[in-house]
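Lab notebook, bench 4. We co-purified these components, and the gel suggests they stay together. Before we commit to crystallization screens, I want a quick structural picture of the whole thing.
Request: model the full complex, all chains together.
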Amino acid sequence: MGQVTIKVPEDIDKKVAELIFDLGLAVLKRDFHRRAEILAYFEAKGWSF
Amino acid sequence: MEFLIDADVLYGYIDLTDWLHPYSTKFFEKAEENNYKLKTSAVVVLELAIVTKRDLPNKLFEILDTLKRLKVEILPVNEGIVELAFKFIKEDFGIFDAFHAATAKYYDLVIVGTDRKYEKIGLTKADPRDI
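Here is the predicted assembly.
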């Protein structure tokens, strides 16, 4: 498995940035359950993007 | 034959642009022709609602009507299913797939979906691409 490093601005929460990256990856990999799990986490936290 | 329909197959049916759409449509046509007993779980509906709300908000409130039209019964979640689901989560399943696997196992249903994990725990899976 390849590895990538992402730099995010300091005012962006690292955890959220990682989740958004994960979400993009789940869409690309057609992993419906992982995609739903991340969106559910956002929903449960009351975050909307 | 009784089936548990996974969220990706239902989403594929709802979203006309989804990669699974042609396969999902064919599966439901075949189910109608052959009088298959179709079931899903409350957790599948929750998962479907979460993704639909985000990606197809105008279709969110059509989910229940779609399930009724497709004659898909919604099964309840109980303590036994939750126990099984947590066992599967310990075995590295995601939250949703663990609940779907537990529901299929509990009610002894063939799971209709594309996730490869289900076979690893001895469930019978029907992939709509192969039907």
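Chain A has a mean pLDDT of 89. Worth comparing against the SEC data before the next meeting. Chain A touches chain B through ten residues (CB under 8 Å).
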